[in-house]
Amino acid sequence: GPVNWKLAEEIAGSLSGEADPVDPWLADEYTELGNLALLQTATVDLLPDLAAGQIDPVDRATWTTDNLRAFDYLVEPLGKRMGEQAQMLGPLASSLVGMQVGSLVGSLGHHVLGGFDAALIARSERGYLVVQNLETFASTHGLDARQARLWAALHEAIHLRLSSVDWIAEHYASLLGTFLGGIEVDLGSITEQMQGMTDPMAAAEQIGDGFDLNSLLGSSSEQWAQDDAQAVLAFVAGLRHHLVAGFGDRWLPDLADIKRALAVRAIEPDVHAGVSISLPDHDLVMTAESFCAQVEERWGSEAFGRVLESAETIPTAAELADPVGWAARVLLDDPFGE
């Protein structure tokens, strides 16, 4: 296949480490907060209902194991494209992608606060809060732990609801596929880096998690598609932040402190580095949050609801910084009646 999932599982498992079960008392609190978040987000008209859903407190190893294949619809097109462009590599092409996805998810296991924090859309009816990471985040930045837990639970509940909107993931995957379709793989770089490596497992041992897949990919003739793909993820994340802020001081009186901690965290080393998946940075997510706030404030909740109507109404990369441009395209009727 286009991705060597067995190799990905081995690398992800070695990076995430052994299982470290969550303390039962703490797990009970997280479960209660998850249930509360699901109930409260059900009152947000913009968000879809869930036929089923749960938010579970887990350790890093559990999150990694459960989510390794949650992004297969994104990485398999990359593996397929590499296989088409670099047939001379044979099974090594799928192994290169397997190493990268295993390294990505295994590294994310030590970083993400929940499913929402992976910056990707995982199509699942199950939500996650990674307890060790969230507790470390709260203590490192001097946050009230219970507020940080509720904040994360609200984000995960919204993320779970947005992940149930099939067209969002499909739209992102389509844009990413267009971007990848315009790439010519750098065979010279592949040959140089893979010289002497004929066995996938041997290559994994030698390259490990430091292999830079991006260096093997040339530029794409469809760069606009990568920009718009980043905008989709930025919009989803910005929308979450906007909706969580809407719960106000009653629920999260320390929200400003949490957001400051997130800004500090955003400058830490990027665990996505070297992986060719189009992801937004913190600044773009904040631009998207501002977009949501401006649209709702200027044109009202009914107009704001149009953002999740279809792939045609979601903002493009250029429109995230230009709400008026988005409104002109989506909200206004043709002035000439054509």
Set down the secondary structure blueprint.
Blueprint: H1 5-16, H2 24-41, E1 54-58, H3 60-67, H4 72-85, H5 91-108, E2 126-130, H6 131-140, H7 145-163, H8 166-181, E3 183-185, H9 187-193, H10 200-207, E4 217-220, H11 223-245, H12 248-251, H13 255-265, H14 282-304, H15 317-320, H16 323-330
Parallel strand pairs: 1-2
Antiparallel strand pairs: 3-4
Helix pairs in contact: 1-3, 1-5, 2-7, 4-5, 4-8, 5-10, 6-7, 7-11, 8-11, 11-14
Summary tags:
mainly alpha; two-stranded antiparallel ribbon; two-stranded parallel ribbon; 60% helix; 338 residues; globular
Brief sketch in words of this structure:
The protein has 338 residues and is mainly alpha-helical. Helix content is 60%, strand content 5%.
- Main sheet: strands, sense, barrel: 2 strands, parallel
Question: Into which percent range does the helicity of residues fall?
Answer: 55-70%
Mean pLDDT: 83
Number of helices: 16
How far the N terminus sits from the C terminus, by CA atoms, comes to 49 Å
Q: How does the helix and strand content classify structurally? A: mainly alpha
Going across the major beta sheet, what is the strand order? 1-2
The arrangement of helices and strands along the chain is HHEHHHEHHHEHHEHHHHHH
Poorly predicted segments: 206-211, 334-338
Shape: globular
Percentage of β-strand residues:
5-15%
User: C-alpha Rg, in Å?
Assistant: 21 Å
Record field, number of beta strands = 4
